[in-house]
Fold:
Amino acid sequence: MPPRQFDGSRVRAVRRGKDLHQRQLAAMVQVSAPTVARWEAGQDFPKGEKLPSIASALGQPIDDLFPTDGPPDLQLLRCDAGLSVADAARILGTSRAPVSNAESGRRRLAATYVHPLAQAYGVTEDELLAAQDYSFGLRPATGLDSQSAPRALGEKVSFLLRYGYGAQAAPSDGEIATLVNEHAHEAAVTADDIASLRAGKTIEVSDAVRAGLAEALKVDVAILGDDATLNPAARQLLEAIRFIGSIDRGQILGLAARGNDEGLSVEMMARMNKIVGELKHKLPEAQDEQ
Structure:
């Protein structure tokens, strides 16, 4: 199935609203009328590179007629440019293997291929490289950048609670307060204090509370600093936490639904295992095995 969502019944409804026969639409997108009939009946799906011409023939924005979930990967960029794998290979003057390997997360594009493909796809080189990262599963749906990364202490606490526990239940405000107080050896905070911190109503906390929060959330205390500009190392760690959380919740398996029917590549799994190993001591402890 193409990376964009295809609903044959919706295509039928829009086509009829335009007073087009199946054979007319078929001629406009260069397929047979029986092919269009199978699409509309849900018996078959068009190739991804056909979707732009179908949307154009029906006078609809492609994002409205065929929505997609999340940032584009390499396959989506190619398909939205109306190009097949063979077309992209011809542009590069090579076999289909480099394009197919990059789209399925097996091997990255050679540097010399980036510029011509970006031009062919109508995107910048940075956009192409970002899409390639997404094809390799190296970025979650919304990556952290200098603007979106959590900076204030409360934002970081909420971020870690949301992404750092995967399928496990994150601790409640009351449980965090208990852990902080145990670490501080005093009644330093209450559950309401933690809630106020996460809501941004409280900004200043003592060093003892900050250290207790780091202990409760199993991260280095340096991660919980109030950073006007999040340093690259901290941003990389937070991104990795979110990525690993996505794996634990099964979100990375969405790669297969976008056309990677071979699943995650050995290279990708090895990189994921390396990240997990490097960050294991900084992530919330897994529940004890039964």
